[in-house]
Amino acid sequence: MEDVRRRLTAAQGSLGQRPGAIKAGNNSKRLRLRVSVPGFTPSDAAQLAHALSKDTSNDRNQDILLPTNNEATDLQSDPQLMLQPRGIKAKGGERHYQKSVRIGIQLADLAVDLRHDGNILRQIYPSGLARLWGSTPAAAGVENYKSKALRDRRVGDDILFYNNKGFFARARIVHLFRNQEAARAIWGADEDNQTWEYMVALDDLEEFQQPIPAEPLLQALNLPAPPLRSLTLVRSYEYDRIKRLLPNKQEPINPSHGPNRHPTRPGLNERELLSVLETLAPREPHKTPRSHLALTLLWSIAHEAKHGSRLVRWHKFRSELAPILARYTSVDPDPTVAHPFWHLGSSVIWEIDGIDITATTTSPPTRLDVVNPSAGLTIDASRLLKKSEVRTRAVRTLLTHHLTETNHADLLKELGMSGYESATGTFDDGPDSGIFTGSLGGTSRCEVTLQRIIRSTKVAETVKAIYDHHCQICGERLETPNGGYSQAAHTRGLGAPHHGPDHISNVLCLCPNHHVLFDSFAIYVDEHWIVRRAADNLELGALRRHATHPIDPAQLAYHRQLCGLLA
Question: 293: part of which helix (H) or strand (E)?
């Protein structure tokens, strides 16, 4: 240090006075130093000042003012503070906080979406009820408050929730993770189709009796005056300076007993889901036909499967659903698109976010246009519909109970769900056909690339040989010049979305007539091997079986479900 002092004194002697300065020797000269300190960058000036200000009177070597390695580690591990805007009510901020922080999220509802993150969260929350929050990604290539906060936040940091010029709650970060699927399942997506995928798990939540005014706190941190517009990270040494402005930590709120906690209810199960889809009781049936509700739910199922977004903004909802209602219903859709969006809100499978559905039972389109809320399937319904079997049954239920006069194949093709209309499914992952009508009425052809399931001819021929081409339902054997003729019908189709096995236990030998009826869900085989008509359960006779042909009852149960019956 003595050597540094001498060097500074010598440097001052060669500096001139600033213009107009009083002649006062070195006291009136300005000297700017650039010092490189290991472990600190130019942006860490305040942190370095904090380290240099520490009392070293008891140190053995008083010339050393920088923190030791252990002290530097302690400095880095001190809690930081995250200033977190809750988001405005119109965009779902209040609802998101209520649902995922104050009430909490059942981890069992997100088992599929959380994947490996679920193991850690189950250890953190043994009760299965988690407090979760998230942030949308920061703008790419931009260094701002949000990008710094997302990059440098740590487990153990505190978080202050902000709304309406005040901080109303405090919590502690116990886990950091990024999970787009889980975020979409919990909160949906914003108007830019971004979701709050940079997620935090929280503990020690406390909500202040009176919000803490934000202005004095932000002023002490040299941050812009309210409103707080961005996620902001306060370093630990800055956090120390403002702790006096915050109340002492109180007893945290237990997730199961927090304020406004709704009575706990078992999660929606498959039977309840299908029962709701079968009945579809709207608030005002004279305004919202069941066919409109069914089309809305089919579109929502297809949209989530394709885009992964559970909740959809009203503007997008209206623009995409209106043409479908126009094509597949006889009612002018302009005044009715709002009705299914709104009136499904009374159902346990539909969620509306960003507008208070309890305030009124009416939903003028102009109000929806201004607020632009989101709506879609609830977390419980979405979780169940991720299972292929449940989704297929749900689609079949909506089609057979509410859309009997609709061309199912055309509708499902438009929704991107081809294959759900039959037991066979769809085998093509590409264009539906490479054949086009030529100018002279013939057919011209173009080359296309398709992916097809390779079905085993041996499996089909084995089953046909067992029954010598006799139909297992009617017993008829069609004779051709080349011998007997029959068709192999898979009880669970090989194509999407069924994905059944190509095995003799999943194949029946049928005549063409009964193959068509079986594939179109007009007939089924019950648990006692009786063939019945699906429309009225009329008994048509016993299914013919052979000792060398094992038939899988589970695949027949799957087919029964698609006919609208319980397995």
Answer: helix 290-307
By three-state DSSP, how is residue 489 classified? strand
In angstroms, the CA 545 to CA 113 distance is 43
DSSP code, position 426: B
CB-based burial of residue 234 (10 Å sphere; 0-12 exposed, 13-18 middle, 19+ buried)? buried
DSSP state of 262: P
Which tokens go with 183? 């975020």
CA distance 14 to 548: 107
Token pair belonging to 503: 């095995």
Closest by alpha carbon to 114, among 127, 132, 96? Answer: 132
Residue 440: per-residue pLDDT: 32
Alpha-carbon span 394 to 399, nearest angstrom? 9
Would you put residue 138 in left (φ > 0), alpha (ψ -120 to 50) or beta?
beta
Encoded amino acid at 52, one letter: L
Residue 237, φ and ψ in degrees, nearest 5:
-70, -30
- Maximum CA extent, the chain: 123
Q: What is the pLDDT of residue 530?
A: 94
Look at residue 505 in the predicted model and tell me its pLDDT.
93
Q: How far is CA 490 from the centre of its chain?
A: 34
Contacts with 134 (C-beta within 8 Å, 6 or more apart), sequence order: 183, 186, 187, 195, 196, 197, 198, 199, 200
The string of pLDDT tens digits covering residues 158-177 is: 999 999 899 999 999 999 99
Secondary structure of 493-555 as H, E, C letters: CCCECCCCCCCHHHEEEECHHHHHHHHCCCEEECCCCEEEECCCCCEEEECCCCCCCCCCHHH
Backbone angles phi, psi at 205, to 5 degrees: -70, 130
Q: What is the pLDDT at residue 283? A: 52
Could you read off the pLDDT of 395-447 as tens digits, one per residue?
888 988 888 888 888 898 888 887 776 667 665 443 333 222 333 333 344 44
Cα 27 to chain centroid, rounded: 64
| 147-to-23, 150, 231 alpha-carbon distances in Å | 48, 5, 9
**Which letter does DSSP use for residue 351 in this model?**
E
Question: Do 514 and 523 form a contact (C-beta atoms < 8 A)?
Answer: yes
Burial (CB count <10 Å: 0-12, 13-18, 19+), residue 64: exposed
pLDDT score for 66: 35
Beta-bridged to residue 129, according to DSSP, are 106
Round to whole Å and give the CA distance between 477 and 474.
9
What integer pLDDT is reported at residue 50 of this predicted model?
56
How far is residue 38's CA from residue 32's CA, in Å, rounded to a whole number? 19
Structure tokens at 282: 């709207």
Identify the residue whose tokens are 């039959």. 422
3-state secondary structure of 234: strand
